[in-house]
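User: I'm putting together notes for a lab meeting next week and I want to include a structural view of one of the chains we've been expressing. I don't have a solved structure, so I'd like a prediction I can at least talk through. The sequence is below, exactly as it appears in our construct file.
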Amino acid sequence: MKTSTIFLFIFALLFCSCMSNELKESQKYDYTTSGALTDDCFQVIVTIPPDKALKTMADQRETAFIKAKGSIAEETEKQVLSYYSADKSISIDKIPLEKTNFLKEKSNEYAKQAIVEQEFYLIDNSAVLVYRIFKKGIKSDILNN
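Assistant: Thanks for the context. Below is the predicted structure for the 145-residue chain, given as structure tokens.
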């Protein structure tokens, strides 16, 4: 009896966790949009060119990938500020300092929650990583706080 109860509890948790990250079909495969995909999902796209001094495609792709993974916090900050400024129709340098600091702090928290949704390489061996941050009310957090 206890085993079946534990199994049902684990199944319910898995089912609920999968539903919280649910995107519409058109959004699931959108790997070009930087910003909020939904009220609860923010997407960050990181594109890093390869080191052209490296000779092989494998070496170029590997170093570009490592640099892309290392720049997620910085890119999240840039893209959160860019998303906010675009929504408010102001330039990034016109965002009040208090709001800028708040968004930078929040973007560092978001970057820690980011998961790689997709990774691919461009013809020039640039690494492209598509990160998604699933957090309840993330769009509102960015735009309204």
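A couple of points you could mention at the meeting. Residues 25-144 form one domain. The beta strands are 35-38, 41-48, 115-121, 127-134.

User: Perfect, that's what I needed.
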